[in-house]
Design a protein that fits this description.
350 residues, MetI-like fold, 6-stranded antiparallel beta sheet, 8 strands
Length: 350
């Protein structure tokens, strides 16, 4: 907070405002609204009821109609502010609605009933968080299982990706051999191949291996990524060759050089690749949808698709579980974001 306060006190000329200060702060405020406004709307809307999401005009805060328990009625009744014929205003509870007329009672004196035109009443609203949007999917739709599947896929796939990509990058950056540049060009060239082209061939391979409806079918096909190989290779090219040659003179094996020297020095780049891999695997939808047909092996992204039916979409559950799936990735990014600039800017020299 102190850093934010000092930032807001910075002026082009000390002691007074300049037009460039106003333009700069306005530009930054607009950027904050554009970036975090949709996220704020998503979080607040996840606490609204299904009816609250469909109402017009929409409200930013989660508001719901107030209900009250009335003697003689088994269920709580919704409250309305009603304008009577004499111009007075009363708060009444609605028993039922028939056409354009609502049958209403006084909550304190339910024996007296009123027939009120629906245009003479206004719902009594209150701020209320619909926390059941988060609890019910976990109980009714096995989202805990989906969460465990996504965590397993993300963690295991990220570890395998870091290992395989770092080995390939080590060979393409440290070793000298014929066809090295051609091999790297082929790796980078695969970036131009969209997943829709290789979807069917990869699916046939997974089917032959008997991995359909297995989480390993999601993990293994994307274990080696051209982006990861390129990123780590470019970083490892900046490592001091004298250090590697000194290790070879000390009779260190290639595995020891890779594991004890190159990997620690490439840790910032590995952290960047880990962040990217977590985001890729956590948000992956198309490939898991193709190879996972059983409910017990679904990931979170496929589980979210279950709330969207042919005739109706359960928006309150969908928004709530979307927030739940975004939270882990957001936390990872917040705690590891400093490695992004470090991994790109650092040269590996101490």
């Amino acid at each position: 907070m102190n850093r934010v306060a000092r930032l807001l006190q910075i002026r082009r000329k000390s002691g007074r405002w300049h037009w460039t200060d106003i333009a700069a702060y306005s530009y930054l405020a607009l950027g904050v609204v554009l970036m975090f406004g949709p996220v704020l709307w998503l979080v607040l809307s996840s606490f609204k009821t299904q009816a609250g999401l469909l109402e017009f005009p929409p409200s930013l805060l989660p508001m719901s109609q107030r209900e009250v328990a009335v003697a003689g009625f088994p269920q709580p009744l919704p409250l309305f502010s009603v304008t009577l014929d004499d111009g007075s205003t009363r708060v009444l509870a609605q028993v039922r609605r028939i056409g354009i007329v609502a049958q209403m009672v006084d909550p304190e004196s339910p024996a007296q009933q009123f027939r009120i035109p629906i245009d003479k009443r206004t719902p009594v609203r209150e701020f209320k968080l619909a926390t059941e949007n988060y609890t019910e999917p976990l109980e009714r739709f096995a989202f805990t299982r989906f969460l465990g599947n996504s965590v397993f896929v993300t963690v295991v796939a990220t570890l395998i990706t870091l290992l395989i990509n770092s080995m390939a990058a080590y060979a393409l950056s440290i070793y000298e051999f014929k066809g090295k540049n051609a091999a790297m060009l082929m790796v980078v060239g695969t970036l131009m191949i969209p997943i829709t082209i290789i979807l069917v061939p990869v699916y046939l391979v997974i089917t032959k291996l008997g991995l359909v409806n297995s989480l390993w079918a999601v993990i293994l096909p994307g274990a080696a990524t051209p982006t990861g190989v390129f990123l780590l290779r470019q970083y490892m090219l900046t490592l001091p060759r004298d250090l590697i040659e000194a290790a070879r003179m000390d009779k260190a094996s290639e595995w020891q050089i890779y594991w004890r020297i190159v990997m620690p020095l490439a840790m910032p780049a590995l952290a960047v690749l880990a962040i990217f891999s977590i985001m890729w695997r956590w948000n992956e939808f198309l490939w898991p949808l193709a190879v996972l047909t059983k409910t017990e092996v679904h990931t979170l992204q496929i589980g979210l698709n279950a709330f969207q039916g042919e005739l109706q979409t359960q928006w309150h559950y969908l928004l709530a579980m979307t927030v739940a799936t975004l939270a882990p990735v957001a936390l990872v990014f917040v705690f590891l974001q400093r490695f992004i600039t470090t991994g790109i800017a650092n040269t590996g020299m101490k």
